[in-house]
Recover the amino acids of this structure.
């Protein structure tokens, strides 16, 4: 990996030490250029060729398929992960007494949405990992889990979880927003029923650009809850749009309903192509290498990392205020985050050892300042 060439693609890195991809990834120049090219193209042709843009979207589905090893038909575009989860929950024929399970300290999407099912008599439980398997019973219909926990950086053993649930006929929803683009995700290895990814973190994409994988088996029984002019299988025949109940296609595209955020998706394509050019395994290796160095750095200052082998390094500094530390680092133009008392540092492939050196200097000063005030 040519790190100098890679860093040159990310303008924000010239002015900031950005160690906060778990909050926001940075846009490469090629992503902004892809958006600008589309907007210029609209002006040039007055949008008369808009149907061709959907051909481009099919190409982007193929790019997503190369990233996570699935077929074009498995991919639908979404503006964020909560839309995918909402679509799934709305499409299940719930019965009173049914059960949904997630884990303690999950991202709020995965707590709020299933909790809203209480009015339909559905039981919702957030359980600790060590009690997860025993919590799955014959009334459990859905498990919701993040691939990487947004607070602690804990990496879920998705293949193990999925195999356990498949044997019991329980659906698995995976929110991959905090790992896809940093860790290699292969659909065939995990076999989720649905995977949702908002690309604005590790896929270095704009807000509003995301995708979901929907397994063929789930598509055969999950009805769309958003119906629009593109729900009918022959929607490209715009001169004679179908009037009447839509005949739904078999592909995941049937969940999209209407128009798409084309400019954002062209940007996401450019960013994913960059990752694929580098190589997903090379990206994962670099991300985990930098994360391991970050853990050692934190330990030099008495920090206690709470997870291993994760792109997210969450550190407890006993007796220190993580939020105050994050603010102090920001004053030095070093961007990290604080989550539930932990200092969260998240390096991506565009970071390097110089960034960690600046983190070391800023952290040393911030900790000394806090100590002096105590």
């Amino acid at each position: 990996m040519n790190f100098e060439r890679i860093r040159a693609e990310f303008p924000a890195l010239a002015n900031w030490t950005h160690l906060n991809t778990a909050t926001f990834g940075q846009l490469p120049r090629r992503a902004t250029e892809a958006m600008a090219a589309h907007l210029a193209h609209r002006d040039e042709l007055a949008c008369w060729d808009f149907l061709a843009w959907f051909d481009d979207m099919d190409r982007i589905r193929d790019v997503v398929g190369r990233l996570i090893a699935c077929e074009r038909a498995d991919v639908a575009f979404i503006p964020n992960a909560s839309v995918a989860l909402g679509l799934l929950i709305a499409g299940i024929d719930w019965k009173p007494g049914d059960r949904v399970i997630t884990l303690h300290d999950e991202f709020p999407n995965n707590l709020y949405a299933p909790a809203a099912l209480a009015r339909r008599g559905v039981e919702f439980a957030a359980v600790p990992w060590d009690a997860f398997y025993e919590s799955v019973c014959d009334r459990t219909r859905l498990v919701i889990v993040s691939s990487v926990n947004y607070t602690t950086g804990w990496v879920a053993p998705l293949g193990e979880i999925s195999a356990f649930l498949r044997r019991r006929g329980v659906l698995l929803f995976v929110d991959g927003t905090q790992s896809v683009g940093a860790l290699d995700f292969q659909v065939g290895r995990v076999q989720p029923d649905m995977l949702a990814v908002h690309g604005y973190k590790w896929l270095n994409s704009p807000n509003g650009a995301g995708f979901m994988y929907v397994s063929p088996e789930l598509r055969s029984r999950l009805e769309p809850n958003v119906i629009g002019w593109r729900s009918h299988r022959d929607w490209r025949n715009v001169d004679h749009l179908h009037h009447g109940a839509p005949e739904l296609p078999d592909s995941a595209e049937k969940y999209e309903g209407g128009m798409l955020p084309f400019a954002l998706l062209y940007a996401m394509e450019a960013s994913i192509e960059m990752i694929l050019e580098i190589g997903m395994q090379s990206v994962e290796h670099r991300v985990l290498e930098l994360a391991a160095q970050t853990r050692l750095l934190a330990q030099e200052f008495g920090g206690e990392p709470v997870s291993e082998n994760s792109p997210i390094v969450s550190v407890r500094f006993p007796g220190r205020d993580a939020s105050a530390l994050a603010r102090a680092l920001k004053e030095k133009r070093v961007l990290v985050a604080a989550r539930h008392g932990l200092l969260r540092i998240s390096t991506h492939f565009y970071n390097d050892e110089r960034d960690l050196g600046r983190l070391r200097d800023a952290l040393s000063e911030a900790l000394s300042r806090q100590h002096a005030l105590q």
In short: The chain is about 40% helix and 15% strand. The mean pLDDT is 96.
